[in-house]
């Protein structure tokens, strides 16, 4: 399980969530979001006061780079056809990555239709993969793997109405030899365990814990039962 913390939101929820993460550390923490925030480094430093798990940058743009993270998820939005999110943002951040020697994890990022217009869809000006088109999802993930991505991220979008369909997770997982990350709209322990059972190697939880940090122990408990 990975927890996504959006530095743009932060606030009270973070102060409630961090002691819980300290008690039951997740496998990873992702830091990022659709909006640029000048608090990214401060938020990462605060997280480190509570937990020692790897903190990965999950940036919405090159402007969200922070040298405080352990590694950078270098996201290529391979479901879209906007060159800015396929290579443009990467060119803008490459010298910072080089100068800081930040480890990079190339990730093929695939946006999947989730019931309503999501921030990532709006900001990136890209079309998501239709939720009934498992064949397109499989072909896109395979293309990402053949291009050298080290993981595929199936994304419903932060706060998605509906998570990525379980059948799509299974279909993509069956064809991949690299890890599969799944996130977006996962709001219950059942939805999380369903995503793992369908084939996700990592499930990312964000919004629901911003709204209700006290759900976290239930998520942890359901993982132990998996
Ligand atoms: C968003 O996949 C992550 O990029 C997490 O989504 O905030 O909906 O949990 P949620």
Give a brief outline of the structure.
The protein is built from nine helices and eight strands.
Description:
The chain has 226 residues and is of the alpha/beta class. The chain has a single domain (2-224), classed as FMN-linked oxidoreductases (TIM Barrel, Alpha-Beta Barrel). 41% of the residues lie in helices and 17% in strands. It has 9 helices and 8 strands. It has helices at 12-23, 40-48, 83-100, 119-124, 134-146, 166-175, 189-198, 207-211, 216-224, and strands at 2-5, 28-31, 55-57, 71-77, 104-111, 151-155, 180-183, 202-205. The chain has an 8-stranded parallel beta barrel with strand order 1-2-3-4-5-6-7-8, surrounded by 5 helices. Helix 1 links the parallel strand 1 (2-5) and strand 2. Helix 5 (134-146) runs parallel beside helix 6 (166-175) and helix 7 packs parallel to helix 9. The longest helix has 18 residues, at 83-100. It is globular. The protein starts with a strand and ends with a helix. SN-glycerol-1-phosphate binds at residues 4, 155, 158-160, 183-186, 204-208.
CATH domain topology: TIM Barrel
**Counting H and I runs of at least 4 residues, what is the number of helices?**
9
Would you count the extended β strands for me? 8
Number of domains: 1
The secondary structure category is alpha/beta
Helix content: 40-55%
| Shape verdict | globular
Strand-residue proportion? 15-25%
List the uncertain runs.
Answer: none
The CATH superfamily label reads FMN-linked oxidoreductases
End-to-end separation? 12 Å
Overall mean pLDDT: 96
CATH class: Alpha Beta
Distinct small molecules bound, one entry per kind:
SN-glycerol-1-phosphate
Task: Outline the biggest β-sheet.
Answer: 8 strands, parallel, barrel
What letter string, H or E per element, gives the SSE order?
EHEHEEHEHHEHEHEHH
| Rg for CA atoms | 16 Å
In the CATH classification, which architecture applies? Alpha-Beta Barrel
Widest beta sheet: strand line-up: 1-2-3-4-5-6-7-8
